[in-house]
Specification:
Number of helices: 5
Strand content: under 5%
Number of strands: 0
Distance between the termini: 30 Å
Radius of gyration: 20 Å
Helix content: over 70%
Shape: rod-shaped
Largest sheet: none
Amino acid sequence: MNELTFDTLTGLGLLLTLIGAWITAHAVILKQTDAIAIGIPRIAWNTDAENLTLPAVQNLIASSRAARRGLVLIAVGTGLQLLPVATRLGPPFMDWIAKALT
């Protein structure tokens, strides 16, 4: 295999990692209302502000924030690794990425 093939495979792998991180982020990141719906017992407070103080809800929100931070770092790191490869491969690779993302 030549250098172009290696760069292409590396770029494709990094792109798949970036897409996977994005999909995972959407699966694990919760909104406060979702955390309340999942984390409250059947008998709970009447308002969202009171429900947000429940330990189970707080745990879900903290986990979601940690997942968001971790996945953002993965996505940024993958993007930084992909940038030199995409630049070296030139416009055809960039056009292919643009078509794949639209």
